């Protein structure tokens, strides 16, 4: 397939995904919910819409082609993909990157997101059967030229060793943080709630730590998050809330809580499900120094403040990455084009 045909496949799939209320999509959602109870219909539809709008539009695809000068002269390679499954379709970006560059994806799907990811791959093949040569499901990787693997910090150690002989991208645990000035409106704080609670906080782009100025009344955050209280109707989320509350009480930890969220003062970037860390900062200089010291733990920084020389996204935008926003800050397209 030449580049024009590959773009056509992706853009046609994007067009197809504009009608998410069809019987076919409802059946797909039902199967996915059975496979992974964390993947609610609301979260699946949110992910499908984000992929459609941010990755599969003609403007997004053309942006990448122009930015990286992608053409038909790229030598096709075999890329091993070990996909994550923490949120719906989280692995689709790697597949799109490989396909656009003309590489063959050897995919080891996550058991947590197999139904949705296989549907995406199969729809590409249905649109143009020649796509099948670029998408190969495997149980074990072999005969590959490069690898992209996503997992925990523990699994990353094994990936580094296993893929040491080929070019590779190894992704580890990361989470996102928010920085508040203290002057945010209730609506801005509500948007922050989207960054915290989307996908139950399971994504690497979800905010798990809030930095606030000294003297800030942190209960303002709890009040603004009230619209998200229905999370407690989800059995797995409620179980995590109850467990973490009991654990903190047993450990005699100090924390605040609402009916559906535990707030704990800590500068640890990663927090437990149904809990959120917060920490105070003295001034902007100290804040920026701290942010730079945690670069390897932070996926993205969410704020409506201006922070000199710090890349950030606005409140409410953490889960809206563009096609050229890359996990762990590693440019996937540049990697695929130089192997």
Detailed description of the structure:
It is globular and about 60 Å long. The model has no long low-confidence stretch (mean pLDDT 96). The chain has helices spanning 3-16, 23-35, 41-55, 58-68, 92-101, 114-127, 153-162, 186-197, 219-224, 235-250, 284-293, 332-338, and strands at residues 78-82, 104-108, 135-137, 146-150, 168-171, 175-179, 207-213, 256-257, 262-265, 275-281, 298-302. Helix content is 41%, strand content 15%. The protein has 12 helices and 11 strands. It folds into 2 domains: 3-173, Aldehyde Dehydrogenase, Chain A, domain 1; 175-302, Aldehyde Dehydrogenase, Chain A, domain 2, CATH 3.40.309. With 339 residues, the chain is an alpha/beta fold.
**Name of the top-level CATH class of the largest domain:** Alpha Beta
- The CATH homologous superfamily name of the largest domain equals Aldehyde Dehydrogenase, Chain A, domain 1
Mean model confidence by pLDDT: 96
The largest sheet is: 6 strands, mixed
SSE topology sketch:
Layout: H1 3-16, H2 23-35, H3 41-55, H4 58-68, E1 78-82, H5 92-101, E2 104-108, H6 114-127, E3 135-137, E4 146-150, H7 153-162, E5 168-171, E6 175-179, H8 186-197, E7 207-213, H9 219-224, H10 235-250, E8 256-257, E9 262-265, E10 275-281, H11 284-293, E11 298-302, H12 332-338
Parallel strand pairs: 1-2, 1-4, 2-3, 4-5, 6-7, 6-11, 7-10, 9-10
Antiparallel strand pairs: 8-9
